[in-house]
Write a structure and sequence with these properties.
The chain is an all-alpha fold. It folds into 2 domains: about 10-80; about 90-138. Helix content is about 80%, strand content about 0%. The chain is built from 6 helices and no strands. The chain has helices at about 15-40, 45-60, 65-75, 75-80, 80-85, 90-135. Helix 1 packs across helix 2 (about 45-60) and helix 1 crosses helix 3 (about 65-75). It is extended and about 65 Å long.
Length: about 140
């Protein structure tokens, strides 16, 4: 009796992760190409991630992409190291405009928190209204 090892191989979480990581890179490359082709003022990575978001609206329940993204999020702080090191090249700008930069970043963060809270509150209210409407129909 001949046993074929390929029949017993099931994709592990790591194998699925390695399959979907190139997908993220392809979307970033497409975004960079679109940025250069149309001379857009938006970073290519942002365009690529927006295209990936559109794909996720088309194929909403892709567990492989979700699992790969969650693995990347575990290592998210590592992606900030190059940006933190790059800031050191702008010490003169930080000395000159550091307070204004801090105030704008702090203000924008507070504004985002407020908008996110209002948006969440509105979503929860609309869900409650939908539940009440469904209950009244029955």
């Amino acid at each position: 009796m001949v046993i074929d090892a390929a029949d017993d191989v099931k994709p592990t979480a790591t194998m699925k992760f390695l399959i979907y990581i190139p997908l993220f890179i392809v979307f970033q490359l497409i975004g960079n190409w679109l940025k250069v082709f149309w001379d857009l003022p938006i970073p290519g990575a942002t365009i690529g991630m927006s295209l990936l978001l559109l794909l996720l609206f088309i194929i909403p329940s892709n567990k492989g992409i979700t699992a790969s993204a969650q693995k990347l999020l575990l290592h998210l702080p590592l992606f900030f190291i190059p940006a933190g090191v790059g800031i050191m090249n702008y010490t003169e700008v930080l000395k000159q405009d550091g307070l204004a930069l801090f105030a704008s970043v702090f203000g924008a963060t507070i504004l985002c928190f407020i908008l996110a809270a209002l948006f969440t509150q509105r979503l929860l209210k609309s869900e409650d209204d939908a539940d009440k409407f469904c209950e009244s129909e029955t």
